[in-house]
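Internal tracking record. Fields below are filled automatically when a chain is submitted to the structure queue. Please do not edit lines marked as system-generated. If the sequence contains nonstandard residues, flag them in the REMARKS field before resubmitting.
Queue: standard
Priority: normal
Entity type: single polypeptide chain
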Amino acid sequence: MKLTRLEIKGFKSFADKVIINFDQGITGIVGPNGCGKSNVVDAIRWVLGEQKSRVLRSDKMDNIIFNGTKRRKSTQLAEVSVSFDNTKNLLPTEYNQVTVSRRFYRSGESEYQLNGVTCRLKDITNLFLDTGIASNTYAIIELNMIDDLLNDKDHSRRGLFEEAAGISKFKKRKKESFKKLNDTDADLDRIEDVLYEIEKNLKSLERQSNQAKKYFDVKEDYRLLSISMARKGIFNQQEAFDNIQKRITDENIKKEAFNSLFFKEEAFIEKLKSDLILKENELAVQQKSLNDHVHSIRSYENEKKIKVARQHFLQDKIEQLKNQINKDQESADRSSFAIEGLKKTFEDVRNDLNIHYKSLNELKEKFESQKQATKEVQDKLDLHNQNYLSVRERVFQYSKNLEIKEIQMNTLKLEFDKTKSDSSEHNNSLKEFERKVNKIVLEKEQKQTLFDKLLKEQKDLEEKKKALIGKINLIKEEFNLINRSLDARQNEYSLTKSLIDNLEGFPEAIKFLKKKSQWKTTPLISDLITCPEDYRVCIENFLEPYMNYYVFDKVAEAIKAITLLSNANKGKAHFFIMELLESFKPHYILPNDGLKPATELINYDLKYKKLITYLLHNVYIYEGNKPNGSDDLIFIEKSGKIIHKTYSISGGSVGLFEGKRIGRVKNVEALAIEIKKLKNQQQILSQNLLESQNEFDQIKLSDKVIELDELKDEINRINESHATFKTRQEQFYSLLNTNSTRKEDIENQIRDIRKEINILQPKQKKQQTKLVEFEEKLNEKKISAEKSKKLLALDSLGYNEANVKCVEEKNKVDRIAQEISFKEESFQNSIKRIKNDKEELRNIEKDLNQLITNTVGEDDELIEMYGKKENYESFLSRVEKAYYQHRESIEKQEKKLKEIQYNRESSDQLLIEWREKLSDAKMNLNSIKDRLSVEFDVVLENIDYKELKPEYEKLDFITLEDRVKILKTKLDNMGAINPMAMEAYDEIKERYNFILIQKEDLLNAKDNLLSTIEEIDVAAKETFLSSFEKIKKNFIKVFRTLFTKEDDCDLNLTRPDDPLESPIDIIAKPKGKRPLSINQLSGGEKTLTATALLFAIYLIKPAPFCIFDEVDAPLDDANIDKFNQIIREFSKDSQFIIVTHNKRTMSSTDLIYGITMIEQGISKVIPVDLRALA
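SYSTEM-GENERATED OUTPUT FOLLOWS
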C-alpha cells in the first residue's frame, strides 16, 4: 500500500484546487518561510481524522477554511482528499484504490467520505487500524514532536510503543469488559433493592389477601338484597309518575295556542320595522345631498380667497422687478469702466514677456549642445560596460559547468560500485522469498475460511441484539410513563392526607373534638359527600356554612360535645342530628328543563339521604344566564361564583382550600387504590425490563466481535506480509535485469563527462584573461563621463532659472486676459438680465388686469348656490316627519305583543309546578337506579334475574330494607380492604422466586468477566514485552548507525512489575558525554536520538508512508548526511515525504514539490522530478 495522491481545496492558504501526486521513494516539499509547506502536512493530518484545532496550528476549526485576501473572497468550505493504492489488499476492503475525503463548512457542519460514499470518522479509524496510519501516529513527525517524544509529553512516547506492539485492541477489549462489569454490578444492586422491597411487602400482602376474600363474600349477599329492594321500590313509584305526565300534556296544548297568537303579532311588527328601514334610508340620502351642496359652497368660497391672495402676490412681484432693473443698470456701468483700465495694463505686460523669451532661447541652445556631448560620452561607457558584463557571465558559466560535471562524475562512480555489489546479494535472496510466499498463501486461505464462518454467526447475533434493544426502549418508555403517573398520584395522596390529618380549613373547635377518641370517627358534612370535579367548587360554595357541621345520630351526643367545648373554652361547633331529620319532608318545586338538581350530582351513603335532601332540595345548577323560576328555588352558577336565593344573592370565594374540602376521605381511598394499581404495573414492567436486559447481556457475552477483530488482524498481517514479500521479490527480479544495463550506461556517461571537462577548461582560462583587460578600459571611460556630467549641470542651472522667470511673466499676462474676459462677460449678463426683467414685468401687469376682471363675475354665482341650499333643507324636513310617525305605529304594536307574552308566561308557571312534581317522582326513581349504579355499577334494566335469589324476591320492601342495613353495617365494621391483594400476592411471590434465579446468573457472569480481564492482561503483557525488546534492540542498532559504534543508548521500563502502565525512559550517551538526562543533549543530538527511536519502532511495524516536517532543521551538514542516508535505506520499503529547507536533504530526494506564493496569501505547487534530470 502506498500514498498516491493528495487533493486540497479551500484549506488554509490553498484557495484553489491543488493536486500533489506521490511516487515510491522520497518526496521533498520545499519553499520559503510562510509559503504554506506545513499546510500540506496539516491537510494530510486533518483528512485522517485530526479533531484538535491546536494540533493544526489554529485557534478554532473555522480557521482552517481559506479566509480570503485583498483580491480574493473567503471560501465557504475546506476539502481535502487523500488516495491510497490498495492493490496488495493491506486495507480490509475490496477496492484497489481507496480515497478518503473530508469537508468542513463555515456553518460548522463536517462530513467524511470513503470512495465518494458518506461515512463516519469511526469507519475511517477502523479502516486504518493497526496499519500505522492515523493523525496521531509515528507516520507524521513534526519538529516540536521530537521534544514531546523525548520529554514524554501527554504520554506520547508510550502511545507509540503501544501502537507498534499492537496492544490497542487488548486495551479496547479490557475497557469493554470493565464496562460490562460495572453494568453487572449496577444490575446486582438493582436486584438487591427489588428483593428488599418485595420481602418487605410479601407478608403484608398475604394477610390482606385473606381479609379480602371474606369481605367479597359478604358484599355479594349485600348486592343481591339491594337489587331486590330496588325492584320493589321502582314498581311503587311508577304509577304516581304516569298521572303527573298526563296533566303536563293538557297544559302544553293550552300553551301552544298562546304561542301561535304571539308569533302572528311578532311577524306584523317585523314588517313595520322593515318599512321603517326604507324610510330611514331615504332620510339618509336627503341628508347626504344637503351636505354635498354645502361642501360645494365652501369650496367655491375658498377658491375666491385664493384669487385675492394671487392678486396681492402679483402686485408685490411688479415692485421687486422694478428695483432689480435699476440695480442691474448700475452694475453694467461699473463693468464698462473697469474693462478699459485692464486692456491698457495688458499691453505693457505683454511687451516685457517678449524680451524674456529672447534671452531664454539663447540659454537653451547652449544647454542642448552640452547635453549632446555628454550623451555621446555616456553611450561609449555603456557599450564598454555591456561587453565587460558579457565576458564575466561567460567566465561564471564555464566555472559552474565544470563544477557540475565533476559532481556528476563522482556520483556515477559511487552508483557503479553499489550496483556491482547489489547484484550478488539479490540472487541469494530470491529462492528464500519464493518459499516464504507459498507458506503465507496457505495460511491466508485457512484464516479466511474461519473468518467467514464467524462473520455469519456475528450477523445473526447483531439482528437479535437490534430486536432486543427496540423492545427494551419500549419497556423503558412505558416504565417512565408509569413512574410519572405514580409520582403525581403519590404527591396528591400525601397532600390530601396531610389536609385530613391536620384538618386544614376547619375551626379550632372541630380540631379539638377530633382529637377525642369518642368522636375521632364521627363524620363531618365535608366527609359524607363527593361529586364530579366540574361541580366541586359550586357545591362547596353553597354548603360552605355547613362544611364544619358534625353529623350525630342522637341529640345526647351533641349536648355532650357542646358541654366539653364550653368547659374547655375551645369555641363553638354545629351539629346535624339524624333522629331529628326523620320527620323532615321536602317540598319539591320543578324548575325549567335543562337545569341539574344538586342532589343528582353528588354521591353519598343512603344512610344520610334525609340530611342531604334537607340541605340540597330545590337547589339547581345552571350555566350562562340565570333561569326564571319560583321564589323557593335556589340557583347556583356552575363556576360557584354566584348563588341566587329567594331574597338574596351571595358569591365570591371560600378561601385557600376552595373546592378541596368536599370528599377528602373518599378521594384518599380512591388515590390509595390507584397508587397500588400503578405500583403493580411498575413491578411487572420492571420484571419485563430485567428479563430483556438479561437476555441482551447473554447475547453480548456470546459476541464474536473480539474474535473477528483478532482474526481480521491476523489476515491483515498475513496480507501485508504476502504483499511485502511479493513486492520485494518483483523488485529483485527487476533489479537483476536492469543492473547489467545500468553499469554499461554509467561507464558511457563517465567517459562523456571527462571529454566535456577537457573542452571546457581551456575556454574558461581564455575568457578570464579577456575579463581583466576589459575591466581596465572600463575605469578610464568612467572618469571621462564624470567630467562631462559636471559641465552639463552648470548649463542646466542657468537655463532653468531663465525658464522660471518666463513662466511667471506668462502667467501674469494670462491672468490679466482672463480678468478682462470675466468683466466683459459680466457686463453682457447685466444687459441681458435688464432686458428679461422688463419683459417679465409687462407679462405680470397683463395677468393682474385679467384677474381683477374675472373676480367681479363670480359673486353672482355664489348667491344662486345659497338659494338651492334652502330648497334642500325644506325637503329634508318633510322626510323626517314621515319617519317619526312610522316609529310611533311600531311602539303601539309592541305594547299589544307584551300582553300576549304575559298570558304565555302564566301558562309556563303552571307547567313548572307540574314539572316539579314530575321531577320529584323522577328523582325517587333515579335515586334507586343511581344507588345501584354508583354502589354496584349495575343497570337495573340489564340485570339477569336468574342471578337473584328466589327467597329475596318473596320478601316485602320494609323487610328487604332492614336486612340491607344489617349487611351494610357488617361491611363497614370490616374496615378498608385491599381488593388487589389476592392477585398481587400470587404475582409477587412468583416474581420473587424468578429474581433470585436472575441474581445467581449475574454473579456467575461477574466471575466470567473478571476471568476475561485477567486473560486480556496476560496476553497484552506478553505481546508488549516481546515488542519492547525488539524495539530496544533496533534502537541500539539505529542509534549507533546515526552516531558511532562506541556510543551507548538504552530503553528502560521505570516500573518493570507493571509493564502495561509503566513510563518508558530513554537513555542516550554519545561518545565522550555522560548527560544526567536526555534534555541535556544538544538540539541535533536530540533530533537524531528521536529519529533512531522512530525508526526502531518502524522496523517492528513499518508504516506505508512517513512524513517529516522540518525535522532536519537542528542538524549540521555531517548529521544531515547520516539522516538522509538512513531515510534512503528505509525508502526501499516505504514512502517518505520530507518538508525541508536544507539543500543536502533536497538533493537526496527523488521528487520535489515547490510551494510558492505568486499571489500574496495564495499557495501554489510546482513539481520537479530529479530522477528525470539525473
